[in-house]
Amino acid sequence: MTDKNQPQTIFYARVSTTEQTISHQAEQAKAAGFKIDEVISDEGVSGVSVPLAERPEGKRLFDLLRRGDTLVVRWVDRLGRNYTDVTDTMRVLLAKGVIIKTVINGMVFDGDTIDPMQQAVRDAMIAFMAAMAEANAATLKIAQKAGIDHAKGNPQKYLGRKPSYNLAALQSVEDLLGKGQGASAVARETGLSRATVIRIKDDLVGAYAALERWGT
Asked: Residue 194: in which H helix or E strand, if any?
């Protein structure tokens, strides 16, 4: 049984109806070497319109985390896809003494950092990653709207070429690329062609959108 007086490592996952499964995100974290004491998740919740503190399990997350605890997320977009929400959330947690780590790229944000230069670098990185999360959400929304509008006029053309990969394969490609593996190595490990891996790498949002269009 876990000693609640000892620092805990809590993994938080958020999924909408079209994104990765909670189990996949948790397994990805464990495969990256994280020893998780508890998994907390919100399912079917938008990261754009619903701040973390207003999500059913997000509220509990704020109550559970204590100084010295570690919060692990797949990437900062699990905390939110709104710049202000993400930056405010991370700063509140860091002020509590919580360490935030990401599975992708292995980022570490430590609230106990006291060196001014390290603080500046940390805060700049938080701002950059939060901005990227919002930009990615905006890009996906625009792509989805454009596809829906186009489908009304030409539904057959809208589908485009059927993807040669399924959701599990796409998630594996994303994970491996996030760990810095090259296209050839990823192709060998997933069984996809190198050209397919490169297309996914160049347009990850489009790759997920293609799966959604085909319902796969």
From this structure: helix 194-202
Looking at the structure, tell me whether residues 88 and 49 fall in a common domain. yes
Decide if 67 contacts 38 (C-beta within 8 A): no
SS3 39: strand
The values of phi and psi at residue 187, to 5°, are -60, -45
pTM over 0.90: no
Cβ count near 169 (within 10 Å): 18
**Residue 162: what residue type?**
K
Residue 152 has pLDDT above 60, yes or no: no
Within this chain, do residues 124 and 23 fall inside the same structural domain, yes or no?
yes
Number of domains in the chain: 2
The number of C-alpha atoms within 13 Å of 181 and in the hemisphere containing its C-beta is 18
User: Does residue 137 lie in a domain region?
Assistant: no
- Determine how β-strand 108-110 pairs with β-strand 9-15: unpaired
Average pLDDT of the chain? Answer: 78
Range of the domain at 196: 160-214
Note whether 58 and 120 are same-domain residues. Answer: yes
Smallest CA-to-CA distance from 26 within 80, 91, 78, 87 is with 78
Round to whole Å and give the CA distance between 82 and 88: 10
- Does residue 76 contact residue 90 with C-beta atoms inside 8 Å? yes
